Amino acid sequence: MSASPIRRWARSEAASGWFMVSPTLIYAMLLLAAPLATIFAYSFFKDGYLVVIHEFTTQNYIDAWSDPIFRTILFRSVLVSALVTLVTVLLAFPIAYFISFVVPASNKSRWLFLITIPFWTSYLIRVFQWKVILNFNGVINSTLQGLGIIDSPLQMLNSIGAIAITLAHAYAPFAILPIFVSLEKIDRSLLEAGQDLGESKLMTFWRVTLPLAMPGVIGAVMIVFIPTIGDYVTPELIGGGKLPMVANMIQKDMLKIDNKPLGAAVAVSAMFVVAAVSLLFLFLNRRFLKVGK
Amino acid sequence: MTQNVITAKVPLEQRRKMIEFDRVHKYYGDYHALRGITATIREGEFFSLLGPSGCGKTTLLRTIAGFEDISSGSVLIDGKHMEDVPPNKRPTNMVFQSYAIFPHLSVGQNVGFGLRRDPRSEAEKAKAVEEALEMVGLKGYGARAAHALSGGQRQRVALARALILKPKVLLLDEPLSALDKKIREQMQIELIKLQREVGITFVLVTHDQEEALVMSDRIAVMFEGEIAQLADPETLYRRPASRRVADFIGVMNFLPAKVLGEGNGHVQLEVAGLGQVDVTDEQASAKPQGGEPAVGFRPETLTILYEGQTAQDRESPGVIDEVVYYGDMTYYDVKLDGVETPVRISMRNVFGRPVLDVGTQTRVAWSPGALVLFR
């Protein structure tokens, strides 16, 4: 039994594990890790005219962070996604609660199915539909005018509110599902115990249901917050390009201005902000999960 | 352990009525879950609702807690109608089958959950929590996470959490069914002692007849939404009101019987395998239940006679058909002469006395006073 170390390794359990994950691993490396690493590297390169000079510099970060427009846009991005997250989770919770606690068990899957219906159309079309609804001659304005409630059409597009409504609608199912799951996991006898120990239904909700649903709520917050901060389509279509968010700025730096290192630095900066916020929520979630086991 | 004044001194019949069911009916759609329950539970009583699953015992318990509305009839707690009183306003607390320990709270927070509106200071409440934990043998567990507890400990927390509120009635929904045998038996004794100490009325739901016999002052045996018999454990065991109750509580042997005549408080019977027997009217089930009459007797009321022994009362011949050895006991299935179905006889094993073999010709001693007539 004097097989070479390589052969012995090839037969080991660790090796078969590696072989099994390797297709996914290669895919992830090529399409996720490699582009990310490229962006990260570019953010430290110098920009020449039409070319990228491969010399180390931190000037891109200094340029980005000293630019008041970047700071405004980044702040707006965080604000919009925080607003979207808040609205989405606040709207999603009653829906999730309704499906979990009010809908009879035999009908729950039907309701969940209904919630996924918006996903049957593409995200782009759904965003565009909001434009149709909120436009000058859109559904809301023509209805209100037709009813004689308003004389001249309302300006609804090109506002943070419009962006928030559109994104909140798009991400609602993502928020409903994790909250629904955490509500489903709550042992119903705990709610009876709350009442049995002298609390009203409302106080039982506050002292039992809500704390136990928190892992789902925090999960929903992260699932909504992370993608919305980097959303590109909605600010472009609903914000009319007048209220750019960080993704729009990256696109402009990268393609229109053709300053790839600066665009890369902006992208990496935005990523760090998202990572910092996510870590905060992850930490909160860990606290709830630790107790909830 | 100090005994509570009420549980120690006052006989059951003289105590206050704590829970009164009056013709309680409960329907789930077409399903008739409770069919006219009428019963009274007295103050400081350890009362059990015993029956197979689906008999309505848990539903009945939940009507006391207020988790089930009743379709008709009335439920009174301490003389007050409860129909419109929500669970959080009732003077009852419950130990749930799953214990329902709040997983996001510590042991101490669980026990103190119901004290939010208690006017006492935080320090006094903390002391009350500590005392409640001590009472159930969990002193010093207050800061522990509830999810780290074992099943037995969870049950103690659930008990402390309910008893700290000093309810008039403590409801226990199969509290011991999730525990293994040793801890269950230990908890049974602890619960009895605790109940005597605090003097609170306990209503226990169980499907375990042994548990009900061990713990209760009185037991209501339920089948299909009705109380089949309500009696103290000894009466229930020795004088079951029907074949079904007899079958549910412990082991009961049945032998077909023929009524030869009755009068003067006696019934004359011809019993298969036993011959002619006289039983008193008290031994006969109150009302005819249909079907062929039969006499029943418990395995321990019969004795297998060894050579040289003679029966004090009556004896009948038979053959040992099966032997089941339990260490302290041996169960013999004996075919009495002329009867095809064997009867079970339990014998305490005595040092130096051999366990008999299958096929042994034997004589069985019995006494007419131990028989119950079902007709």
Automatic annotation (TrEMBL), chain A:
Membrane-crossing residue ranges in chain numbering: 21-45, 73-99, 111-128, 160-183, 204-226, 262-284
Signal peptide: none
Coiled-coil intervals: none
Topology in the lipid bilayer: Multi-pass membrane protein
UniProt-listed Pfam families: BPD_transp_1
Entries under SUPFAM superfamilies matching the protein: MetI-like
One GO cellular component term: plasma membrane
Keywords: Cell membrane, Membrane, Transmembrane, Transmembrane helix, Transport
Protein location: Cell membrane
Swiss-Prot/TrEMBL GO biological process terms: transmembrane transport
Highest taxon above the source species: Bacteria
The ABC transmembrane type-1 domain, residue ranges: 74-283
Major location category of this protein: membrane
Family recorded in the similarity comment: Belongs to the binding-protein-dependent transport system permease family. CysTW subfamily.
Protein name as annotated: ABC-type spermidine/putrescine transport system permease subunit I
Automatic annotation (TrEMBL), chain B:
Cited PROSITE patterns: ABC_TRANSPORTER_1, ABC_TRANSPORTER_2
Family matches, as PANTHER family: SPERMIDINE/PUTRESCINE IMPORT ATP-BINDING PROTEIN POTA, SPERMIDINE_PUTRESCINE IMPORT ATP-BINDING PROTEIN POTA
GO BP: any one term: putrescine transport
InterPro entries: AAA+_ATPase, ABC_SmlMolc_Importer, ABC_transporter-like_ATP-bd, ABC_transporter-like_CS, Mo/tungstate-bd_C_term_dom, P-loop_NTPase, Transp-assoc_OB_typ2
Designated name of the protein: Spermidine/putrescine ABC transporter ATP-binding subunit
ABC transporter domain span: 19-249
Gene3D superfamilies: 2.40.50.100, P-loop containing nucleotide triphosphate hydrolases
Lineage: Bacteria, Pseudomonadati, Pseudomonadota, Alphaproteobacteria, Rhodobacterales
One example GO MF annotation: ATP hydrolysis activity
A Pfam match: ABC_tran
Any one Gene Ontology cellular component term annotated for this protein: ATP-binding cassette (ABC) transporter complex
Alphabetically ordered keywords of this record: ATP-binding, Nucleotide-binding, Transport
